[in-house]
Amino acid sequence: MSFLISPAYADGAAGMDPGMFNMLFLVGFALIFYFFLWRPQAKRAKEHKALINGLAKGDEVITAGGIIGKVTRLTDAYVVLEVSNGVELKFQKAHVAAELPKGTIKDI
């Protein structure tokens, strides 16, 4: 009900316009949202897309589920990983989480 009562100011000390304060608050909130949430997420998505597009036969990768394997075949949407001698699993490319350094599977 405060919209029915006009604010009372001391003589000559009107201060900042409440509408301007609200606008600055919203702009500040938008900047914080951009720098802490949107920008880092977009950066991670760009890096993941580059990883997916850069996959090649023979790369050692880890999936989002934690399965480690060597890429044996690639299609547009799928990747086939050899997880053990003669054992191959098919995954969507989007589920590849990271590329591992060469020789990681031998060391395990």
Summarize, please.
The protein has 108 residues and is α+β, with helices and mostly antiparallel strands. The protein has two helices and five strands; from the N terminus they run αβββββα.
Helix content bin: 25-40%
Any idea of the CATH topology of the largest domain?
Answer: SH3 type barrels
**N-end to C-end Cα span:** 69 Å
Number of helices: 2
What strand line-up does the widest sheet have?
4-3-2-1-5
Fold topology:
Blueprint: H1 18-53, E1 60-63, E2 68-74, E3 78-84, E4 87-92, E5 96-100, H2 104-107
Antiparallel strand pairs: 1-2, 1-5, 2-3, 3-4
Written overview of the protein:
The mean pLDDT is 89. With 108 residues, this protein is of the alpha+beta class. The chain has two helices and five strands. The N and C termini lie far apart (69 Å). 37% of the residues lie in helices and 27% in strands. 5% of the residues are buried. It folds into two domains: 17-53; 56-107, SH3 type barrels (Roll). The protein has helices at residues 18-53, 104-107, and strands at residues 60-63, 68-74, 78-84, 87-92, 96-100. A five-stranded antiparallel β-sheet has the order 4-3-2-1-5. The radius of gyration is 27 Å and the shape is rod-shaped.
